[in-house]
């Protein structure tokens, strides 16, 4: 028996983004039609690379700044969850670029709660592994406020549990707007502690 099963869900890529630099106070991505994935992530994206400096996400394990394996090479968000956040913030829409998202899909329910180890596979064979839920941050709040003054301050509270997930590349390949990503989930039951 495989440790992963086809969930039957397909997430259709609505938008792709690239964040070539870490701009002070802004996380805004640039929209692109194609992402070429290597095992290091996406060339020229601020989150690409085999390793990264540890951050608040792993502070229980590592002192800040220690080099660790980069399992946060890309970010994935759901257009349905962005719509819900936008409604909560009083916006007509929430642009995925404001969140620095690399991939925005439609069609996968409860995307922000995908289990670690789940896989998403593109027609090219490119395969992404879910790392962890991506929690809301104040940098996104500032980016939203730049575009829609007064609407970003509530982002952290309104986006909790809806911010998407971080990913790492398991198999290289290309992603295109309009591609369907097939979701595979682990057969292992959730840990009950």
Keywords:
3 helices, three-stranded antiparallel sheet, seven-stranded mixed barrel, globular, mainly beta, single chain, 193 residues
Describe this structure in words.
- This protein has 193 residues and is mainly beta.
- The protein has one domain (4-186): M1 Pyruvate Kinase, Domain 3, CATH 2.40.33.
- It has helices spanning 79-89, 138-147, 155-158; strands at 4-18, 30-32, 34-38, 41-42, 51-53, 67-69, 74-78, 103-106, 119-121, 127-133, 165-171, 173-176, 180-186.
- It has a seven-stranded mixed beta barrel. A three-stranded antiparallel β-sheet has the order 4-3-12, with no helix packed on it.
- β7 (74-78), α1 (79-89) and β8 (103-106) form a beta-alpha-beta unit.
- The protein is globular.
- The model has no long low-confidence stretch (mean pLDDT 92).
